[in-house]
Amino acid sequence: MKPLFINQITIQAEVMAVTDYLMDVTNLPEWNPSIQVIKINEDNYQIIRMEQAINQTETVTVSKESQKVIFQIYGDMLRYTLTFDLEKNAENTNVTEKLTILENHKLHLPIVFYKPIVKQAFAKNLTFLKQRFANENITI
Fold first, then answer.
1. Separation of alpha carbons 104 and 38, rounded Å
2. Which InterPro entries does the UniProt entry name for this protein (predicted)?
């Protein structure tokens, strides 16, 4: 499947530190300010947003595959995969974020109309992720 969009950013941290940080879903509110509550279930996480969003609630599973962290996200309106491809670049990590729609959605308009808004929101969160590493000097 073709991604709906791709965002890229470089983070000043080792690949393993970025991988470990992304794998811990409880870190999401630190770099995605719309997420206010995360409930930890046996084999997934329940995310609740307090701000207006396409999905107010989402069930998330996370996995790792080589140099990728993959979020499978099942929301009330939209189901998608969010893949973070991580590539070493000297002392930094290049992060390529890809969002792929999994199946038919329950949106009132074609997904293409939402694309610029969603892409921008996810790019903003990637910037917050980068800042998180810069401000906290995260090493895992």
1. 25
2. Polyketide_cyclase/dehydratase
